[in-house]
Amino acid sequence: MNEKELEIVKSTNKKSKPQTDQISFGKTFTDHMFIMDYEADIGWNNPRIVPYEPITLDPASMIFHYGQTVFEGLKAYRSEDNRILLFRPDKNLQRLNLSSERLSIPAIDEESVMNYLKQLVSLEQDWIPTTEGTSLYIRPFIIATETNLSVAPSQSYKFMIILSPVGSYFSGGIKPVSINVEEQFTRAVKGGTGTAKTAGNYSSGYQAQAKAKNEGNADVLWLDGLEKRYIEEVGSMNIFFKINGEVVTPELNGSILNGITRMSIIEVLNEWEIPVVERKISIEELYQAYADGELEEAFGAGTAAVISPVGELNWLGRKMVINNNQIGALSKKLYDEITGIQTGKLVDSHQWILEV
Amino acid sequence: MNEKELEIVKSTNKKSKPQTDQISFGKTFTDHMFIMDYEADIGWNNPRIVPYEPITLDPASMIFHYGQTVFEGLKAYRSEDNRILLFRPDKNLQRLNLSSERLSIPAIDEESVMNYLKQLVSLEQDWIPTTEGTSLYIRPFIIATETNLSVAPSQSYKFMIILSPVGSYFSGGIKPVSINVEEQFTRAVKGGTGTAKTAGNYSSGYQAQAKAKNEGNADVLWLDGLEKRYIEEVGSMNIFFKINGEVVTPELNGSILNGITRMSIIEVLNEWEIPVVERKISIEELYQAYADGELEEAFGAGTAAVISPVGELNWLGRKMVINNNQIGALSKKLYDEITGIQTGKLVDSHQWILEV
Ligand SMILES: Cc1ncc(COP(=O)(O)O)c(C=O)c1O
Ligand SMILES: Cc1ncc(COP(=O)(O)O)c(C=O)c1O
Fold this sequence. Notes:
Two copies of one chain form a homodimer. With 356 residues, chain A is α+β, with helices and mostly antiparallel strands. The first copy, chain A, has two domains: 7-166, D-amino Acid Aminotransferase, Chain A, domain 1, CATH 3.30.470.10; 177-342, D-amino Acid Aminotransferase, subunit A, domain 2 (D-amino Acid Aminotransferase, Chain A, domain 2), CATH 3.20.10. In chain A, 22% of the residues lie in helices and 30% in strands. Chain A has eight helices and 19 strands. In chain A, the strands form two sheets. In chain A, strands 1, 2, 3, 5, 6, 7, 8, 9 and 19 form a nine-stranded mixed sheet that branches. A six-stranded mixed beta barrel of chain A has the order 10-11-12-13-16-17, surrounded by four helices. The first copy, chain A, is globular. The mean pLDDT of chain A is 96. At the A-B interface, strand 4, helix 1, strand 8, strand 9 and helix 4 of A face strand 4, helix 1, strand 8, strand 9 and helix 4 of B. Strand 4 (55-57) of chain A pairs antiparallel with strand 4 of chain B, so a sheet runs across the interface. The complex binds pyridoxal-5'-phosphate (2 copies). Chains A, B: Belongs to the class-IV pyridoxal-phosphate-dependent aminotransferase family. Chains A, B: It catalyses: L-valine + 2-oxoglutarate = 3-methyl-2-oxobutanoate + L-glutamate; L-leucine + 2-oxoglutarate = 4-methyl-2-oxopentanoate + L-glutamate; L-isoleucine + 2-oxoglutarate = (S)-3-methyl-2-oxopentanoate + L-glutamate.
């Protein structure tokens, strides 16, 4: 695909920027957004950066009826020496295309979109907060826009990128959370859409989330949909366990999202020569390791928190308290390493950073 | 809930109505639509019938990101004596609320909404086509509208009803279709959202649909997500088989949609004293019945087609040709009975019809 020329329409009415400590996730957006359109006969076209504003859609647009949509989530960080850093954004665009394939959405040209994304972030750079743990959240997404109630792939789409400044995930310092092991609801199953970042995978978890919260937990540990035995993910994050000195994470089995934080953690552990294995791990095995005193650490891994330690797992009335409800040494070391690379404090030996 | 007063804003710019033989499904909409809003602190409010027009939403509206949405599909028929008939619309509103519960969407008041729906259909009655097999398709749906990227239930929603005239599903007479038994992709699994009419369930089937079409089939026969053995649905319809004089349909197992056509067929068969059973049925069992010459008829059942005969099933290279690729006698009798009741040609002994 030839890169289409990017049109830029600047906002004449700039919003005031929120104070870092008053940002709640995902509610504040910057002055501009990126849009491009797709029509079956001409492909992706009309890339443009325009003032952030509502979009207008026919009520019969397919996005409202059949869920043909995919998204991504990544962050821009401001380094101490004032550079703007993206963490493995190529992986996000690759994954977006994989998600799109699953949802029968036409692929985007990753190279052009990376360029548009950089231009948008560059234009909005004053929106990147600078205090520790903050960043500018980047949400690319695609929606089906054809006006048609037929159950079939849309002939037209919109690809958009919106930006939202985010405060620190751990404002009072990193605190382990309590998690409920979900036995009834299923997030995803082989042959379904679990490996894609698509809307339906998220709202389908709300009932399990509510149940977990009612019982005093922060989120849900998902088991596989087939046997309700094997551990898959935690909330919207991948999950890791340190068991008797070895790090274990569920293998990519066709229903788990291939997290970019997850893949980075595995690479860092390999580099550190700490044993790490991707394999099936059942909740019974985990409980046994706990009972034997071998479950040393547990943490979720994803763009939002980077590392989110699990302090307590509740499974059918059994409670596992992990590392005394404190963040583990390895969890902390991984958090420092990855966030260090992301914010330019540590050397980027893997070439994971793209400077805008 | 007290019924809120319905505001009606009439369109001053009426569209021209399409000729019945030029209607393609789901692309033409009437002059008006129904909308009402939900906010967490006041509940459903501001019910109104307004000119059909695009809606305007913030790009960060939750519907675009996490798929919190449900819908329904039913039809208004014009009888020969010019009455406007709805077929079991109470069941659609009940199912809408069941779908909403699964998606953590607040319930609507079924009685008020039935009243709004009737008023909308009444206002648009000139849009109901009158030739054989035609009707006015009614699409109620709810979308999450809060501007927030948090993965959590929305605090605001829009409930809408749009109307679309539809031509005959079988314009050249009822023709059996060829169906591919899908072995790789999964529509739904227990603990998932299969029993809800929610967007994500539909686009997740597009890849399997495309595969089926590439191989010359009209649609997909879905097997259960756990063992890939038991038959669930066909396309967006429930499925029935007549085997050795007995009618068999998959039981409602927690991943199948509870179709209103399905439940009506079961009631009619009971009335006719034709044996009908809801149970698990595996694809192997079906193939064996076919090999033994006992698979007499097969048909999909849903609002769109009412009865859609299956003439051919393709399963891992094995082809089952059913009833010589002709519509079966029972399929035809059921089609005539249900469409007869729907259009007011036959006596409505079950009190299934609501006159507008
Ligand atoms: C379901 C799910 N699992 C895991 C992750 C973690 O992926 P990443 O590390 O790429 O953010 C995400 C996204 O954040 C997700 O939505
Ligand atoms: C997945 C699915 N199954 C079955 C049906 C049939 O249900 P009904 O008879 O209520 O139209 C539908 C809707 O038409 C559906 O979407």
